[in-house]
């Protein structure tokens, strides 16, 4: 076979999937990772303090949201286990009226066991609620990289997403995720 026949043979055997590789993306000068100008030492410390403060506030907001959700969802477990331990004769043995008339040691043990049995599914439900809410509010997009403090001209992540933490941007309803 000659070289021309080999080239024609190779071109004919190319599949349609090999043509699915997209071309190079258009480059925008604003989005390129060009060497950026570093900040001065004093300015870098000030920006570092601001970025650390912002990231700490976002962390505390996430922690507060998580504690609130877990407390509300796990409230039945907390109440059942509390009353079980409060009325059991070998633990606290309260002198409350309901402990003397309604709950004896067997029923208190049953409440303690029930509370710990229903805890596992409720923890899963609480985590699913927190993750779903954090994803919809884009809370993790609020964390800023350290390079924001070191170099001039680094854009805020949430600014590009359409508002503070992406909350102002319309949510993409086409993407579905199973939790």
Automatic annotation (TrEMBL):
User: Does this UniProt record's set of keywords contain Transmembrane helix?
Assistant: yes
Q: Which InterPro entries match?
A: TMEM88
- Where in the cell is the protein located? Membrane
Residue ranges of the TM segments: 57-85, 110-131
Query: Per UniProt, what is the membrane topology?
Result: Multi-pass membrane protein
Q: What GO CC terms are in its UniProt record?
A: plasma membrane
One GO molecular function term of this record is: PDZ domain binding
Domain of life of the organism in this record? Eukaryota
Main location per UniProt?
membrane
Enumerate the UniProt keywords alphabetically.
Membrane, Transmembrane, Transmembrane helix
Family (UniProt): Belongs to the TMEM88 family.
Record's protein name: Transmembrane protein 88B
Protein species of origin? Alligator sinensis
Q: Which gene encodes it?
A: TMEM88B
């Amino acid at each position: 076979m000659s070289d021309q026949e080999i080239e024609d043979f190779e071109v004919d055997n190319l599949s349609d999937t090999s043509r699915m590789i997209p071309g190079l993306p258009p480059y925008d000068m604003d989005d390129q990772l060009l060497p950026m100008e570093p900040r001065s030492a004093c300015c870098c410390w000030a920006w570092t303090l601001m970025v650390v403060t912002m990231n700490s506030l976002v962390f505390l907001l996430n922690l507060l949201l998580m504690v609130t959700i877990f407390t509300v969802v796990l409230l039945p477990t907390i109440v059942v286990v509390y009353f079980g331990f409060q009325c059991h004769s070998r633990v606290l043995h309260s002198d409350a009226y309901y402990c003397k008339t309604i709950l004896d040691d067997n029923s208190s043990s049953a409440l303690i066991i029930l509370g710990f049995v229903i805890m596992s599914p409720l923890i899963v439900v609480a985590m699913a609620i927190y993750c779903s809410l954090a994803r919809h509010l884009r809370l993790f997009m609020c964390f800023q990289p350290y390079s924001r403090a070191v170099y001039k001209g680094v854009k805020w992540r949430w600014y590009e997403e359409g508002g503070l933490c992406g909350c102002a941007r319309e949510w993409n309803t086409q993407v579905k995720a199973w939790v």
